[in-house]
TrEMBL record, chain A:
Gene Ontology MF, one: lyase activity
EC number, UniProt record: 3.5.1.2
Keyword Hydrolase in record: yes
Family: Belongs to the glutaminase PdxT/SNO family.
Keywords: Glutamine amidotransferase, Hydrolase, Lyase
Protein name listed in UniProt: glutaminase
UniProt-annotated binding residues for L-glutamine: G46, E47, S48, R108, I142, R143
Organism annotation: Solanum lycopersicum (Tomato)
UniProt cross-references to InterPro entries, sorted A to Z: Class_I_gatase-like (IPR029062), PdxT/SNO (IPR002161), PdxT/SNO_CS (IPR021196)
A GO term from the CC aspect: cytosol
TrEMBL record, chain B:
Descriptive protein name: pyridoxal 5'-phosphate synthase (glutamine hydrolyzing)
Keyword set includes Ubl conjugation: no
Family: Belongs to the PdxS/SNZ family.
Active site feature: K98
Pathway where this protein functions: Cofactor biosynthesis; pyridoxal 5'-phosphate biosynthesis
Stored InterPro entries: Aldolase_TIM (IPR013785), PdxS/SNZ (IPR001852), PdxS/SNZ_N (IPR033755), RibuloseP-bd_barrel (IPR011060)
GO MF terms held by the record: amine-lyase activity; protein heterodimerization activity; pyridoxal 5'-phosphate synthase (glutamine hydrolysing) activity
GO cellular component terms listed in the entry, alphabetical order: cytosol
Pfam families (alphabetical): SOR_SNZ
Gene Ontology biological process terms, A to Z: amino acid metabolic process; pyridoxal phosphate biosynthetic process; pyridoxine biosynthetic process
Domain PdxS/SNZ N-terminal: 24-229
Length: 251, 309
């Protein structure tokens, strides 16, 4: 099985490193034709504005949309979640292109700037049911988005109460949200809809590999082995490619 | 912290952390999200918008670009917080800002206005020629410059969550950047092949904390994200830095001192993503207009990189 990781910018090396620990080959995807060689795709964290710009320059959007519509499994973390959403608020002037497919509204940069970034122990009942392990997951939120509302077909895998975030009051986005709703409001941070999985946090930054195994189980086991042979030939002509070295993993 | 009266043994894990609110993993996390990207120097909101449209993964707000600091001289300081706020409002990408080395109050001000990263930079005039800021005291993450492995690890021990090799800012000349990246990477290669018994002496030689040296040996790379900086002016320069093993690139004067900033910025962003594809690099390097005027580094040119150890 070969999993593609969109390698325009961001934490694609980290995703490939986690896949390697699970014994799965991850390949970098930078061009539309490289999508033909992979059975599933991870869209990593990073700056969604930058990734959208680069995807547009290299005409990746039609191929990505087709990939999603073909029903192949796609997982977006953080910036990837924004990419997959049908609607995103809080975009830059002039807006940004999205792949779409996931029936939800995402607030880009919901939790505010870096000073409001945090990590928390997140309960993940559905994932625990599949993969076992402790009932919560160490989730790292970096300038993270959040899902404001979801369509009927979307399964909510995890949410966090807004009161859990200490820096609540200093954040205009959350304040605005609170005005319109009751306090004790929860915000959605992980969803699944058919072949699409999306998380607002970064499972690629921590040692726990359960989200990656959860995603890999969404990939139908199609035997044939053709993809393995094709994928290795794509990186033949490149210079200076180096072996991926892992970062310290925070336990 | 203060007041508890408990003596803790130093060094129980190389990069474990301190303040509850912003653990080191969150500080390093943002830098990891910037990997494979370009961070551009901007001096006002208008330039920040151009940088965002070009595909920069973050912008660095400063008072004057390094080339102007070189040309005009005088003391270079943190830029006006009002200006930084305007830049922050104009764009959705992370905003960094420079503080003078050792000037922890400038860093406190930058933390108070809620920017995403502080660059404790040798490009600005020094505020303290002996001590750097104790970066553990801040919730905001820091990026610091280095010329070699020892300097990088000293900064990380002080709390830096991201490292950039210094190069020579404002010159448009890549030679110093190459020298510094090669020095860091070369030392790491030497370290990786070293017997564990020799690491103690090596740590003494490069004047770096032993635990971080050992961690670097085990990882085979710096334990934080490592960008290149100082002298990048063309897409080829940027791709060179990536092929030498950096995680991304800072571009200072190279973009807004060139003939067509939007076009050159976009080309450099593409070059960092497709750094190992010469065909594409050739395509994007075509017709970019005039590059910034470079400076040849003879003895008369002041070396900003040598301002701090």
């Amino acid at each position: 099985m070969v999993v593609g990781v969109l390698a325009l910018q961001g934490s694609f090396n980290e995703h490939i490193a986690v896949l390697k620990r699970l014994g799965v080959k991850g390949v970098e995807v930078r061009k539309p034709e490289q999508l033909l060689n992979v059975s599933s795709l991870i869209i990593p964290g990073g700056e969604s504005t930058t990734m959208a710009k680069l995807a547009e320059l290299h005409n990746l959007f039609p191929a990505l949309r087709e990939f999603v519509q073909m029903g192949k499994p796609v997982w977006g973390t953080c910036a990837g979640l924004i990419f997959l959403a049908n609607k995103a608020t809080g975009q830059k002037t002039g807006g940004q292109k999205l792949i779409g497919g996931l029936d939800c509204t995402v607030h880009r940069n919901f939790f505010g700037s870096q000073i409001q970034s945090f990590e928390t122990e997140l309960p993940i009942p559905q994932v625990v049911a599949e993969d076992g392990g402790p009932p919560s997951f160490r989730a790292v939120f970096i300038r993270a988005p959040a899902i404001l509302d979801v369509g009927p077909d979307v399964e909510v895998l995890s949410d966090i109460p807004l009161s859990a975030i200490e820096t609540l009051n200093s954040n205009p986005a959350i304040q605005k949200e609170e005005e319109s709703t009751e306090s004790g409001k929860k915000v959605i941070v992980a969803v699944k809809q058919g072949n699409l999985l999306a998380t607002a946090f970064h499972p690629e930054l921590t040692a726990d590999t359960r989200w990656h195994s959860y995603f890999l189980k969404m990939v139908p086991e199609i035997e044939g082995g053709t993809s393995d042979i094709v994928s290795t030939s794509t990186s033949n002509q490149s210079f200076g490619t180096r072996s991926i070295i892992d970062f310290p993993i925070y336990q | 912290m203060a007041g508890s009266g408990v003596v803790t043994v130093y060094g129980n894990g190389a990069l474990t952390e301190t303040t509850k609110q912003s653990p080191f993993s969150v500080k390093v996390g943002l830098a990891q999200m910037l990997r494979g990207g370009v961070i551009m120097d901007v001096v006002n909101a208008e330039q920040a918008r151009i940088a965002e449209e070009a595909g920069a993964c973050a912008v660095m707000a400063l008072e004057r670009v390094p080339a102007d600091i070189r040309a005009q001289g005088g003391v270079a300081r943190m830029s006006d917080p009002q200006l930084i706020k305007e830049i922050k409002q104009a764009v959705t990408i992370p905003v960094m800002a420079k503080a003078r080395i050792g000037h922890f109050v400038e860093a406190q001000i930058l933390e108070a206005i809620g920017i995403d990263y502080v660059d404790e930079s040798e490009v600005l005039t020094l505020a303290d020629d002996e001590n750097h800021i104790n970066k553990h005291n801040f919730r905001i993450p820091f990026v610091c410059g280095c010329r070699n492995l020892g300097e990088a690890l000293r900064r990380i021990r002080e709390g830096a969550a991201m490292i950039r090799t210094k190069g020579e800012a404002g010159t448009g000349n890549i030679i110093e950047a190459v020298r510094h990246v090669r020095s860091v990477m070369g030392d790491i290669r030497v370290l990786r092949n070293m017997d564990d018994d020799e690491v103690f002496t090596f740590a003494k030689k490069i004047q770096a904390p032993y635990d971080l040296v050992m961690q670097t040996k085990q990882l085979g790379r710096l334990p934080v994200v490592h960008f290149a900086a100082g002298g990048v002016a063309t897409p080829a320069d940027a791709a060179l830095m990536m092929q030498l093993g950096c995680d991304g690139v800072f571009v200072g004067s190279g973009i807004f001192k060139s003939g067509d900033p939007a076009k050159r910025g976009r080309a450099i962003v593409q070059a960092v993503t497709h750094y190992s594809d010469p065909q594409l690099l050739a395509e994007i390097s075509c017709g970019l207009g005039e590059a910034m005027v470079g400076i040849n580094l003879d003895e008369k040119v002041e070396r900003y990189a040598n301002r701090s150890e």
